Amino acid sequence: MYDNQRDLLLKESDRFPPPQGVRLSYGTAGFREDASVLLSTVYRVGILAALRALKTGKRIGLMITASHNKVSDNGVKVADPSGGMLTQDWEPFANALANASSSQDLVQLIIEFAEKENILLNGSKSAQVLVARDTRPSGELLLDAAKHGIGSIIGVVAHDLGILTTPQLHWMVHVRNKGLNGSERDYFHELSSSFRCLFNSNPNNSEWKLKDWDNQLVVDGANGVGGQKLEMLKEMLNGLAIEIRNSGKGEGVLNEGVGADFVQKEKIVPLGFGSQDVGIRCASFDGDADRLVYFTVPSESSNRINLVDGDKILSLFAIFIEEQLTILAARTKATKIDFRPTLGVVQTAYANGASTQYLKALGLEVVFTPTGVKYLHEKAAEYDIGIYFEANGHGTILFSDYCISVLQPLYWELSDVSSGSKSHKAALRLLAVTRLINQAVGDALSGLLLVEAILQHKNWSIQTWSELYQDLPSRQLKVKVVDRTMVETTNAETEVVKPPGLQEAINSKIAKYPKGRCFIRPSGTEDVIRVYAEASTQEAADDLATSVAKLVDQFLGVGSSN
Ligand code: 16G
Ligand code: MG
């Protein structure tokens, strides 16, 4: 490392001293903490993103957000050149950087890491990091710290994209690394034009109908960035009739009693919704708009909701894609192009058992990964068409390069042999989905438009969609423990391997309940062990969860469950 690089790093990092007594961990989706302790962490993640940009020679993304956490928290995560999550190999370095206790230690770590990764720190290469933040008040100051971090590596510059949703930033990294423009306007144009294309491919629809389209959709924007961006998207869809509440314009506090996480976990109506919404199609985003769930308010007399979660969104998407592929398969014989993509569905252990059974009964290949987008995304990318969703509403559909490269010529061939036919339209619809659905990460805005287009296409109400299958009753609990790393799991988190004997004890509890299923896992974002239980009745699911929570308490010492 050249002296000027070392001096710059020492000088800049002295301005961002690490907090005392806080141990930081990159976790499932970046660092998240009370915003007041994060300046040094974000500065250091800026350095990491700059090093990653030099290493890959591509644009890297850095997002300031704490997603569904309370407004006083904030966080930071990094997007790799594909627009996906930071490669897991770099997570230990991220942890080491964040926890280095002095500027000297920090510089030493950087020197060693750069040497190991063959990153030249002599300013001979240039690179760019795209940075953005959500609407949290602490975001501006933290973004500034990130820019200082990026600027501490000679040759790397930060490009500030302002306030964005997390998926918008991931999308921009993905698109710009392909040599395309990737502005916010391009993002909205891509979503709105592909949505229009899908909408018009339905014989009963036409462009002018977009305005008069069943206007009974109300969206809860979690008082975050998603509501604001949906307003902008709406403009580009000529006033598509969506009512947006909790849009972050002073109606309430970010994620407080609102948003996808609240709706999915509590299963009660978010603030701003109530008896006036009975029977209407409603949707909720989380604070940074990478989660989407739907719901209805079934009755005026109760605040309970009927949840249509990520599993049901996944099922809707899978049915639609499978239908288009079946139509195409019947006709591709007439063309020179042999198109037989592999299709896979990816879930986690939190997926309701009824959804898995339903998807398997459709003949789909269903696979499981541990919790966290990075795992699901990686698995889905192994298929030509990989559909992944967590029950909490994170998910998307990935199309392989092969798939996209074949669909386009296939569409043109079909326009020769059978223009306007069912198969021609099926190819058109699949092509539109490849453009509408975010290829970098799950995206509430693009997911919402795809759900809406499919419901229109099938002429389904939210009730018809919700009745595809009946969810098994479930219960989630968390147990505070001294050290959550004492629990180790395998088989996509469904079996405990450590501490010994605990899985056997859980099994004997499960055996008592018809359709019983239960697993425990250490949280990746909080210092707790999570318990999930499912059974044929709500009472049984509650009992099973409570008895397993007690076991966790017994095996892992001090603690209380809630
Ligand atoms: C993060 C993850 C989410 C996961 C959740 C689990 C991303 C972008 N987000 O929010 O996928 O479901 O953590 O939290 O990966 P837990 O480990 O505390 O249960
Ligand atoms: Mg989120």
TrEMBL record:
Residues 58-90, 116-175 form the Alpha-D-phosphohexomutase alpha/beta/alpha domain. GO terms for molecular function: metal ion binding; phosphoacetylglucosamine mutase activity. Signal peptide: none annotated. Its EC number is 5.4.2.3. It catalyses: N-acetyl-alpha-D-glucosamine 1-phosphate = N-acetyl-D-glucosamine 6-phosphate. Substrate binds at E390, A391, N392, R521, P522, S523, G524, T525, R530. It comes from the Eukaryota. Its cofactor is Mg(2+). One of its GO terms (biological process) is carbohydrate metabolic process. Residues 506-550 form the Alpha-D-phosphohexomutase C-terminal domain. Mg(2+) binds at S67, D286, D288, D290. Binds 1 Mg(2+) ion per subunit. The keyword Lipoprotein does not apply. The keyword Isomerase applies. Pathway: Nucleotide-sugar biosynthesis; UDP-N-acetyl-alpha-D-glucosamine biosynthesis; N-acetyl-alpha-D-glucosamine 1-phosphate from alpha-D-glucosamine 6-phosphate (route I): step 2/2. Residues 309-460 form the Phosphoacetylglucosamine mutase AMG1 domain. Keywords: Isomerase, Magnesium, Metal-binding. InterPro entries: A-D-PHexomutase_a/b/a-I, A-D-PHexomutase_a/b/a-I/II/III, A-D-PHexomutase_C, A-D-PHexomutase_C_sf, AMG1_III, PAGM. The active site is at S67. Belongs to the phosphohexose mutase family. Interconverts GlcNAc-6-P and GlcNAc-1-P. This is Phosphoacetylglucosamine mutase. It comes from Cucumis melo (Muskmelon). The lineage of its organism: Eukaryota, Viridiplantae, Streptophyta, Embryophyta, Tracheophyta. The gene is LOC103492153.
